[in-house]
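User: I'm curious whether this sequence folds into something compact or stays loose and floppy. Could you predict its structure so I can see for myself?
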Amino acid sequence: MNRNPSTDTRDANAWPRPATAWGLDLQAGGGIAVLADRSGRVIARAAPADSARAEDAGARDPVSACLASEESLLLWISAPIASAQKAARVFPSLLDIQLPFPIESCVARFLAIGKTPEGTTRALAVAARTETVKRRIEACRAAGWDPLIMDHEGIALWARGLAEYPDVRPGRVRVIACLNPDRVVLVFGKSEILGVHVIRRQAGDPDASDAGALAGRIRRALQPELEENAAVQWLWCGPRAGDAVFTGALHAALAGHWPGECATLPDPAAFLARALAARLARPGTLAINFRAGELAHPAIARHAARRRRGALILLLAAGAALLGINVLWRGAAAAMVKRESRAVAALTAGLAPGARIPPGMEVREALKAVERSAGETAAFRGAIEHSLLPDLAAIADAAREQRASIGSLTLTGGRIEISGAAPGWAACERLAGTVNALGFTARLERKGAAPDGRLRFALEGDRANALRR
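Assistant: Here's the prediction. I'll summarize afterward.
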């Protein structure tokens, strides 16, 4: 089956995992770039327009940028299939129906694939036109940056918000508002991201400092998504989030419709740039890279080639190890066969002394020698194999335990006869049980009372399949 690079996800997130990375945010007014580690801690800052600094920085640490939320599509789709593997093959067709352009002309990814309680399979679909991704890459290059990763703005904001401000009340509605001078990005969800809305400031709109007007536009954008009076947690980030008076007025205007707490995220102006850098170093479950296929950065191709070479080296090493083990095993097996052959030959020589036995004929010759000597040793073998001493000892022990006296006893391999006296009939029966346990079929008979008052008895029995002598 041919792989479609626009929707294939197997190699979409195969990029190096550096300790530090640059995050490039070209959406925030004049833009901002920060060097951060995997925890989002800022190490250095740079202006995106500083091309000399950008080229030097990008040469030392990888760069992550993102598509603006309005340049991409984000939605949950569901397939009526329980198998995630089969559903993954159906998702592109289901997404194609939702797109205003052919799926072949876009880069699409399917994240967080999982089963639902209803037995279906759902995924978070994200898609962007290939030409849009190209334009964003060129915009970054024009500023002196060559991004390794082209992330999704809304997903980056959501994932970093959870990392830096964990939700202590799962299931509550959370809205992350990235407040830029010319646009506001609203990322909303509960335990998972549900959607993204973008509010752009158009010519003739109220001044950007008008919190009441902005709150009205936010209400119109989110009203179809949120229930009236639902408790909402508002998190502010972006260049304008540092203005506590503005965010306070904005929250007051929104709290009448959706009451709840609000907070400003740490280092709000650089929040998106920090999120992009941290996600490059530690992608997480919602990792995405629109820069794939023919748009992929050369470093990713080199990384994939190194991984393939590493896998090939491991495969060759495993093959060499197996070959060595096989050689060692064959040598050990040959030595064992030789050792056992010598032991068989020595044993055969003891059974058939003086005979010249060709190799491989030891067992046959030994069996012949045993057959020839069978008649000579029959008496000795019979005495050993069919001794009646154990039976006699068992009967004597049983008589002693039952306080029975034995007047006469005849014992052969196939028959037993006992006469004697016992304290009572129960003792006679227990003695007969011992005889039965030896393989005889015991028959017990009363013979009257002895002068001392004890019960006289007679016991006889035969043993089937016994060796008659």
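Summary: Residues 284 and 373 are 82 Å apart (CA to CA). The first helix runs from residue 51 to 60.
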